[in-house]
């Protein structure tokens, strides 16, 4: 029976060899397609409040087309109601020289400051209708999205860089915390202040974008797929006897890492001495897509069964 279980495990592994070999070659997560990137061009993501999107795009897209002609930048905007996670704001991706990025952002900031009066003065409406008012402070803010690597440069060692940016510009600069429940490799930078202060701070941030060789690592403007992927994840917990955990971990954790690479699931084992209530079993938590968690659960159960068979036939190996 042990040999059969071992063969089954080998077959499961073999069925995943394609994706694993691709992953080792670096093909499982294709690099983002950079649209017409040229030497000296960079990317900047900006959050656009819904009320400002129309004036930035213009009738029939005329305003945004003219803006691209004047600045030489390429501008992409997420679809209506395709918002950045946790907000009701659209994502604008700007590509161009540092000068073009600053020019486009200045235009966007101007439109963001133009809050429609209807949104600042609450009307008497039916209590069941959604409120159309908004925080007037948003008009004095710029919200940029940068990769984690760029965020690190903006913060600087011990926060020295962001402190210097605030002192030199007079603006307040704040970086968001890493979001819960979704795996994003970027942060939102909120810059608050008067127009000139915000402009100076954003220019300093664009400088950090230029300095970061990985600043073009997150070029998506839609997050719908990311949100759908996260919501489709499931969590499975199984119990593994304490004396068999080593078989799943493997030497130096190699087997556990291999199982995660093969299936795409995340596998976590409770710490030594942390058992399921009333047992000597450790908790193994598997997270991922239904297919990934099922495959990981199967590999682990087969490994446990195989190891139990080996130990039953060779009692001297126990312990």
From TrEMBL:
Coiled coil: none annotated. One of its GO terms (molecular function) is RNA binding. Residues 40-113, 138-210, 232-305 form the K Homology domain. GO terms for cellular component: nucleus. Keywords: mRNA processing, mRNA splicing, Neurogenesis, Nucleus, Repeat, RNA-binding. It is found in: Nucleus. It comes from the Eukaryota. InterPro entries: KH-I_NOVA_rpt1, KH-I_NOVA_rpt2, KH-I_NOVA_rpt3, KH_dom, KH_dom_type_1, KH_dom_type_1_sf. GO terms for biological process: mRNA processing; nervous system development; RNA splicing. Residues 1-27 are annotated as: Disordered. Interacts with PTBP2; the interaction is direct. PANTHER family: KH DOMAIN CONTAINING RNA BINDING PROTEIN. This is RNA-binding protein Nova-2. It comes from Myotis brandtii.
């Amino acid at each position: 029976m042990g040999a059969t279980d071992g063969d089954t495990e080998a077959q499961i592994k073999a069925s995943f060899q394609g994706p694993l070999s691709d992953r080792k070659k670096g093909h499982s997560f294709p690099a983002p397609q950079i649209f017409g990137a040229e030497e000296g061009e960079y990317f900047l993501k900006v959050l656009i409040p819904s009320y400002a999107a129309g004036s930035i795009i213009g009738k029939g897209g005329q305003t945004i087309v003219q803006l691209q002609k004047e600045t030489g930048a390429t501008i992409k905007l997420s679809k209506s109601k395709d918002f950045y996670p946790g907000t009701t704001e659209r994502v604008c991706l700007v590509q161009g020289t540092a000068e073009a990025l600053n020019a486009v952002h200045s235009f966007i900031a101007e439109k963001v400051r133009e809050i429609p009066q209807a949104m600042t003065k609450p009307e008497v409406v039916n209590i069941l209708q959604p409120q159309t008012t908004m925080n007037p402070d948003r008009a004095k803010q710029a919200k940029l999205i940068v990769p984690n690597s760029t965020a690190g440069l903006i913060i600087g060692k011990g926060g020295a860089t962001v402190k210097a940016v605030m002192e030199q510009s007079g603006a307040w600069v704040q970086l968001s915390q890493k979001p819960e429940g979704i795996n994003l490799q970027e942060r939102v930078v909120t810059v608050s202040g008067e127009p000139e202060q915000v402009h100076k701070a954003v220019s300093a941030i664009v400088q950090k974008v230029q300095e970061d060789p990985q600043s073009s690592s997150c070029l998506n403007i839609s997050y719908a797929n990311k949100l759908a992927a996260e919501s489709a994840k499931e969590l499975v917990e199984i119990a593994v006897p304490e004396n068999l955990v080593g078989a799943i971990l493997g030497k130096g954790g190699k087997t556990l890492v291999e199982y995660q690479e093969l299936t795409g699931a995340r596998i976590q084992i409770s710490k030594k001495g942390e058992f399921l209530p009333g047992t000597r079993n450790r908790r193994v938590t598997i997270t991922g897509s239904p297919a990934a968690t099922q495959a990981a659960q199967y590999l682990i159960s087969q490994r446990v069964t195989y190891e139990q068979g080996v130990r039953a036939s060779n009692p001297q190996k126990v312990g």
